[in-house]
Every structure is written in C-alpha cells, then in structure tokens.
C-alpha cells in the first residue's frame, strides 16, 4: 500500500501527548467543532480529519503495554490490575465512563483528555484473545467433507485453497483501512462505520442491516444444528421442538458476557472442543461404515447424485465412491451449493472490525488473523479430505452426525453442542452490539454498556435476540438450503465483496491528497484543490494503481460468485418448499426417518 501521504500527514503539527491531548488542534479557529462535540455519525467529518487522528492514535498505541488476561479474571469475575503506565489520574476520569456518551449534550461538557480516556476504556482485548475469537468464529470443519463430495477432489481442494487465501487477504484489507480511519477521537465500532466513512450514510445503513441479518441467521442456524444434535442424542425420545429451545436457554446465560476480552479465553476452550470432535470422528470413520440411514437427508450424494446412495432390492447400499472432478457436471445447482459450503467455512470477516475495535493494539490484528487463517486452512484440508476418503458420497453435511456408531454420535453431538454454544454466544454478542450501537444508542440515546442501566438493558435484549433467531431458523424446512442462503446472501459479501471495495475507496481518497491539501490541526480546516470525478480519477491512477485494478476485479468476481450462489440457493429452497419437510415446530426430528 502507498504510505507516502500517511508519512506526509504525520509531519503536520505536533503529536498529542500521552493522553492524546493536542492543544494545537483547532486552537486558532473558534468555529472548529471538537470530536466529542459532534454527532455520533457526523457526515461533515472528512476523510482527512479521520486519517489525521488515526495516525496519531497509532503512534500512541505503539507505546501501549500489551494486555494480558487470565482464567481467574473470567471465572472469578476479578478485574485486572490497572496499568499505571497507561492510566493517569483514574479517579478524575471515573465519572466519564459512567456518563451516557450517546447524549451529545453530555459529550460537549467533557474535556479532550476525558474523551480520549473514555475511548481507551473500551479497548482491552489482546492479539492472543483475538486469535481465539477469529478461530472460534470461522472454524467449522464439519461440512468440508460434504463439500468435497459435491465438488470432487480437484475442484474441492483448489476452491478451498483459493477461498482460504482470499479470506486472509480480505482480513488484511480490513486491517489496512481500519488503521487509517480509527482513532481515540473517532473510534470505529463496526463494519457499518467503515462504510460510512468511505462511502457515506447510505453505506452504513446497508452494511448494518446486512450484518445484523447475517449474525441473526447464523445464530439461528447454529441453534437448529444443535437442536438436531440433541434430538439424535436422545434417540428422538424428546419432542424435537424442545431441543433447540434447550440450546437457546443455555445461550441466555452465556450471552450475558459483554466484552470480547472475556470471550477470548472462553473461545480458547471452543477450539479444543472442536479439535476433540475432529479426532473422535476421524478415528471412528476409519473403522466403521457411514450412517447410511440419514444419507438421504443431507449427504453429498443426495445433493448431486441420489442414485449413488439408493439401496438395491436387497437393501444393500452402493459402495463408497469418489470423484476426481465434478460428480455431475450438469448439476450446476448442486455444485454451487457445495461451493457455498466452502464460502460459509471461511465466512467470518463480518466480525473483524468489532474485534479490532476492542483491541488495545489493533496493529497486532494482522498476526492474529493470518495465524488463525493458516490454522483453519490446515484443519479444513486434513479433516475434509479424510472424511471424503472414508465416506465418499455418504459424507454428511454435519460430519459427526454421519457417524454410524451411536455412542460416538453422542460424544460428537454433546462436545459440539458446547463449542457451538460458545460460537453462538459470540455471534449473539456482536449482533446485539450492532443493534445497540446503531439503533438504541444512535436513535434512542441508550446508556453505554459500562453503566448499570446499560448492563440491565443488555440482559433484557439477550433472550429476545436469541428467541427471534430461533423462530426464523425453525420455520425453514431445509437446513442445508438455509445455510446456502446465509452464505450467498450475507457471508460471501462481508468476506469477499466488501473488503476490496472498502480498500479501493480508502486508497483512492488517500492517494488523491496532494501537496498543500489535507487537515490543518492548527485551524481545524480542510484544504482540497478540487472535487468530483477528477479527484477520484487521480486517486485511482496515483500510487499503486495496479493494486486498485486488482481490487476492482476481485470485488467484481466476488459479486458474480454471490449472484450465482444466491441463484442456486433459491432454486434449492424452491424445491424444498415444493416437497414439504419437517420444520422445528413439530415433535418429530428431521433426522428421524421412522417418525
């Protein structure tokens, strides 16, 4: 990335002191409105001002001590010891963290120093915690063998490799734009804030709606998946409508964790639980046949070639088979739906901005995201190829439910239930924050989550949010079709479409700044020599112009893939509704063929 303008802007005026104060900012202009006095999403704040404060915040963060979190803080609810090097005169600032900062009148009354302190108070997560959060958010290897079965060896391995690398690159692009726009004065809190600062208010609303919808649907999907697991564990003796509700009730309690710092260590447990399920199912699959009985419900063969899983007159099922290429080149819908499983496997970038927003040193995010991405890719390739090798066309969409031995089915279901609960709580946590920050605080001046009233309001919202997610997902009769819709309509966009578009807009606006332009910290004014198309063309062609072309092509290809995936998902859902299946409001489990 071209950092010429970033280095130039660092020379514009003095850096703030340890607490972020800079008496020179706007001091000679009585009409300059300080950051804390502006509206929460003020369209009058320019790119240049955001970028100026962002560069200075990065300088301050460089000297911040790395945060550490222990299990005692999570289990005993013990607050970490305050770092004297990063906090000054804490008692003087305590009232600010209890103040309703969504109320503009309250913000006007506080000083620059207090505003900086209030912003820093929310940034506590470490790079290690972020690694666990990213891995918990993305790691979902249980459908990789199924996707391999719908695509074949070569297309499956190639696509999972390409999607994995590009998902990591998208994380890099989000990190790049975040560092250039986030600051203590103007903190970025979610994906919508990035769109707002680069494209305008309309982008913020579109991204917030899509993100909230995606997180709500994913939460519902995880709820239904684990509801099916409980019904299988009980041998279908428990009314199926009750099983997802049990999962939701457990989510009410875990959903009360509000900060991502606390979620970081809980997410560590989820990773090890997932690995335990992987090792159990790998051992069992090597010494037992597939679960033939449920193959018609969600196996690779059921999607692309039903005859390959249909028993003969004597009741014997066809042998396990593999394909080097597409099993059925004429089945576009089947292959695209398998492709969407790959997209879902790496979908998680919609949470990256929230992760960085709560990091004390967001510059360390890049280490966390690439470390997590390489770990996730290795697990996918090893586990997915292993499942497909042993189960072939019988590979089930949720691999541990495709194990034929009931005891190991139960072990996989219950362990995955616990890890799924942690992942679902993470989705609920971010989803509620999107709603809280952009609707309740922005429109209704709701109190901050650090206040007592904010904590009470959070406790009320959690069960409502989980209940809505369950109702939406439970009404869909086709689980796999539901997953395809989520992937193609929301997750693909956040992971592959939006990051290059945001990076493109950021680099164009940064490269468009020439000598004599920018934010003047002494007067608080913005200088631009031109506007409109001419400025955008200069920003596109200046600096690493070839990278702008690459991002344009990347975004276009991602949108084309999203369109094809959505077409396949809709076609699959139409077929599902033409042949009614059981939904989650009945007592008969979708996995109970005899019911």
Automatic annotation (TrEMBL):
Transmembrane parts of this sequence: 129-151, 157-181, 202-222, 234-254, 266-286, 332-353, 365-389, 414-436, 456-473, 479-498, 545-570
Top-level taxon: Eukaryota
Spans annotated as Disordered: 1-38
Compartments it resides in: Membrane
Record-annotated Amino acid transporter transmembrane domain positions: 124-505
Cellular component annotations (GO), alphabetically ordered: membrane
InterPro entries: AA_transpt_TM
Keywords: Membrane, Transmembrane, Transmembrane helix
Recorded topology in the membrane: Multi-pass membrane protein
Pfam families: Aa_trans
GO terms, molecular function: L-amino acid transmembrane transporter activity
Entry's family note: Belongs to the amino acid/polyamine transporter 2 family.
Protein name, entry field: Transmembrane amino acid transporter protein-domain-containing protein
Highest classification ranks of the organism: Eukaryota, Fungi, Dikarya, Ascomycota, Pezizomycotina
């Amino acid at each position: 990335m071209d950092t010429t303008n970033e280095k130039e802007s660092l020379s514009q005026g003095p850096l703030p002191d340890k607490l972020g104060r800079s008496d020179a900012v706007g001091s000679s202009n009585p009409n300059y409105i300080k950051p804390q006095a502006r509206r929460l999403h003020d369209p009058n704040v320019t790119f240049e001002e955001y970028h100026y404060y962002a560069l200075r915040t990065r300088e301050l963060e460089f000297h911040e001590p790395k945060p550490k979190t222990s299990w005692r803080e999570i289990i005993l609810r013990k607050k970490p010891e305050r770092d004297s090097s990063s906090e000054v005169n804490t008692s003087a600032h305590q009232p600010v963290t209890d103040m309703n900062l969504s109320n503009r009148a309250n913000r006007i009354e506080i000083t620059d120093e207090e505003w900086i302190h209030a912003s820093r108070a929310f940034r506590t997560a470490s790079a290690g915690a972020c690694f666990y959060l990213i891995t918990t958010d993305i790691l979902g290897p249980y459908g990789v063998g199924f996707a391999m079965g719908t695509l074949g060896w070569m297309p499956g391995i190639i696509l999972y490799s390409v999607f994995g690398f590009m998902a990591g690159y998208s994380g890099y692009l989000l990190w790049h734009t975040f560092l250039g726009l986030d600051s203590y004065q103007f903190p970025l809190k979610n994906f919508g804030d990035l769109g707002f600062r680069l494209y305008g208010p309309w982008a913020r609303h579109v991204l917030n709606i899509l993100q909230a919808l995606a997180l709500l649907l994913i939460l519902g999907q995880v709820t239904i998946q684990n509801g099916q697991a409980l019904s299988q564990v009980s041998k279908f003796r428990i009314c199926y409508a009750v099983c997802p509700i049990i999962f939701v009730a457990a989510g009410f309690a875990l959903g009360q964790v509000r900060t991502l710092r606390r979620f970081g260590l809980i997410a560590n447990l989820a990773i090890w639980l997932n690995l335990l399920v992987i090792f159990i199912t790998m051992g069992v699959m090597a010494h037992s046949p597939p679960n033939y009985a449920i193959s018609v419900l969600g196996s690779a063969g059921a999607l692309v070639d039903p005859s390959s899983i249909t028993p003969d007159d004597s009741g014997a099922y066809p042998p396990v088979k593999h394909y080097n290429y597409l099993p059925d080149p004429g089945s576009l819908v089947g292959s695209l739906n398998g492709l969407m499983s790959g997209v879902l496997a790496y979908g998680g970038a919609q949470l990256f901005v929230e992760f960085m927003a709560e990091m004390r040193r967001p510059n360390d995010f890049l280490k966390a995201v690439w470390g997590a991405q390489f770990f996730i890719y290795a697990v996918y390739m090893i586990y997915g190829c292993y499942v497909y090798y042993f189960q072939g066309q019988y590979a089930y969409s949720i691999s541990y439910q495709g194990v034929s031995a009931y005891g190991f089915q139960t072990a996989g279901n219950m362990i995955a239930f616990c890890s799924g609960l942690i992942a679902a709580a993470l989705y609920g946590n971010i989803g509620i924050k999107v709603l809280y920050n952009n609707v309740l605080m922005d429109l209704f001046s709701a109190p901050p989550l650090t206040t007592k009233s904010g904590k009470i309001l959070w406790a009320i919202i959690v069960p409502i949010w989980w209940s809505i997610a369950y109702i939406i997902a439970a009404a869909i009769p086709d689980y796999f079709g539901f997953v395809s819709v989520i992937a193609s309509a929301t997750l693909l966009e956040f992971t592959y479409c939006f990051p290059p578009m945001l990076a493109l807009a950021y680099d164009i606006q940064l490269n468009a700044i020439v000598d004599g332009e920018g934010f003047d910290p002494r007067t608080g004014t913005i200088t631009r020599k031109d506007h409109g198309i001419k400025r955008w063309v200069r920003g596109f062609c200046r600096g690493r112009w070839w990278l702008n072309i690459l991002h344009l092509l990347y975004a276009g290809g991602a949108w084309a893939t999203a369109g094809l995936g959505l077409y396949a998902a809709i076609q699959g859902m139409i077929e599902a509704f033409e042949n009614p299946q059981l939904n989650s409001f009945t007592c008969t489990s979708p996995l109970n063929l005899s019911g």
